């Protein structure tokens, strides 16, 4: 096994320039969720996997069937087309299988003036690669791809299958991984190369998207006291949600104690009124409710609904015109690897060998991810381990350290040798 380990690690190092070029090229493809670019990037990667000799399953997802499924995890952008993609390096047939999972979609760029470099430039400087999706998570996805390629071209034959799943729609609910599981793809273990600073994440909190509709009574602004401002009526609800957030974070799972807020509750958009000189009669606020590790989605929803209802009882207008709560878009349940799984230890060992024993922490993440679909629906022990810092994701300074990309590829290749076995 030592000889095969050395061969594979040497091959990863030899392929590193190609890996970096590949990441830069993929970052240059604007695969924003719900755009044609998302599908085009998936097709591009499918072609690459085929050229590298993998068995490729690239299929058009039946969105009508998928979205009508009772377990569908939600979607926040309109799509008329989406594609699944799995590449398989077939093993000898008598070993365990490993899936490497990653998403190819990225979030919008936001204010272009906030970017130092164009967001899809793939700029490389000072040991970092910059651009939208560099950190979240094209570098991790391609580190997974090149880990597979290093094994394939090293001459090492695995006993079990090594499966690479590239998914769409992770950012707005997880439809790609949901479709991949529905397609029948499974493995004995899974690693998602999301940005973790090369730490190991075996659990995620959840995140539920909600919408509040606050009703008022419109009138001319010159006679505003004859109307009821929907903006003003949001305030008691806002205060109630702040109190709810504090209560829900008073006692958290030990894996989540590193975070100031393990399960944040926030309002991200507020829209009210249609004329500056009118008292607004409708306010719509949309936000995100964090779900505690191990908490049922239904219980989290009920907690917020109860807090909103209680706030309405304190206001004479809201008692007769209660705020409406709607659950829409991405509905991320929490997820956690089974306690009896040894996957965390195996990743830790692989990381130690790949990084010259660089320290690694184990903790839970305060955001939702596809980990919960793989563990809960797929029954697959799953962890997150990958390059980059999640705090840079979704922002104008998004970037990833090249050395962490290399370490991720080395670690995942070693993990495949360990789990799949060598024929």
Overview features:
single chain; 423 residues; alpha/beta; Aminopeptidase; Alpha-Beta Plaits; 2 domains; six-stranded mixed beta sheet; four-stranded antiparallel beta sheet; 11 helices; 16 strands; 37% helix; 21% strand
How do the strands and helices of this protein lay out in sequence?
Blueprint: H1 2-27, H2 36-51, E1 55-60, H3 63-67, E2 83-89, E3 98-103, E4 124-125, E5 128-130, H4 134-154, E6 162-167, H5 175-182, E7 189-192, E8 200-204, E9 206-215, H6 230-248, E10 265-272, E11 282-291, H7 297-313, H8 316-320, E12 324-332, E13 335-336, H9 343-354, E14 362-365, H10 371-377, E15 382-384, E16 399-401, H11 402-420
Parallel strand pairs: 3-6, 3-7, 7-15, 8-14
Antiparallel strand pairs: 1-2, 2-6, 4-5, 5-16, 8-13, 9-11, 9-12, 10-11
Helix pairs in contact: 1-4, 1-11, 4-11, 6-7, 9-11
Outline the structure in words.
By secondary structure, the chain is α/β, with parallel strands linked by helices. The protein has 2 domains: 2-204 and 334-420, Aminopeptidase, CATH 3.40.630.10; 206-332, Alpha-Beta Plaits (2-Layer Sandwich). It has helices at 2-27, 36-51, 63-67, 134-154, 175-182, 230-248, 297-313, 316-320, 343-354, 371-377, 402-420, and strands spanning 55-60, 83-89, 98-103, 124-125, 128-130, 162-167, 189-192, 200-204, 206-215, 265-272, 282-291, 324-332, 335-336, 362-365, 382-384, 399-401. It has a 6-stranded mixed beta sheet, with helices on both faces. Strands 10-11-9-12 form a 4-stranded antiparallel beta sheet. Helix 1 (2-27) packs across helix 4 and helix 6 packs across helix 7. The longest helix has 26 residues, at 2-27. It starts with a helix and ends with a helix. The mean pLDDT is 97.
